Each structure stands twice: as structure tokens, then as C-alpha cells.
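Hi Y.,

Following your request, here is the sequence exactly as I used it, all 149 residues.
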Amino acid sequence: MKVILKKDILNLGRSGEIKTVKDGYARNFLMPRGLVETATGGSLKAWKNSAEKRAKRVAAEDGATNELAKRLSAITLSFSRPVSEDGVMFGSVAKSDIIKNLAAADIEINKDMIRLPASLKAVGTFEVEIALKPHIAAKVKVAVSAQSK
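Below is the corresponding structure, written out as C-alpha cells. Let me know if you'd prefer a different format.
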């Protein structure tokens, strides 16, 4: 089934692209969430007519997202966790911890935006990538220190 993407969809494409997807994926997942519309003759014509307006809106959104990326790149998040005498850390720093600290700085992101394959389980400074949009990402410094007793 050919569909027109209304929004950016990770691993599928950007807004405005025409993609071919399986019928069930389109009907059961994409369409109920308002992410796509069927690519018929009339919808393609209407989509092309509104391309200029949509391009301006996307440019404005990208500008705001780039500003957020600059703010995120300047942030260093600090965490302290208890450490054993051997230097092994008890607990870890997970995506939820990063989200809570960013929320305290008035930055709202969701869990899927954080590209962290596994929780941080060591003391040190790490860079964590946050994908704000498929083509815009920021790196946040995360400092994990040993908790004083």
C-alpha cells in the first residue's frame, strides 16, 4: 500500500515522503495514529499543493529543535551512586534517571529519544546521544561519581 507520511517516523521516513508499506502495518498501526494517509490521486495532488506551507512549518520546527540541541549539548548531568570497596558500582544510571534530571532543567524528552544501549554501570564521564528528530541529535555529558559515605 502506498502512503504519504504526515510525520517523521523512525526507520521509515520523513514527513511528506511517499512510501510503500505492508497493508496491515498501514491499516493497524500508522493510520489509527494519524501518521500517514493513503496515497490516492486526490491526496497526492492536495499534498503537493500544500508543500510550500508545510516546508515553512518544518523549517520553523527544525530551528526550534536545533536550539534545543544546543541547550542539551551545554548540559552536564551529575549522578552519584554508592560504590563498593572494590570499585564496583551499586545500581546504575538509566534512561529514566536522565529524563528526570532533564525535566528538572525544563527539557521534556521521551525515553525513545535517548540512545543508550544499556544502563551506565561504571564511574566516569560519558556522552549520551539524544535523537530529537531523525536528522537532529545532541550529545549530553553524564558524569557518574562515587557516593561519599
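The beta strands are 2-5, 18-20, 36-38, 76-81, 114-115, 124-133, 136-146.

Thanks again,
Q.
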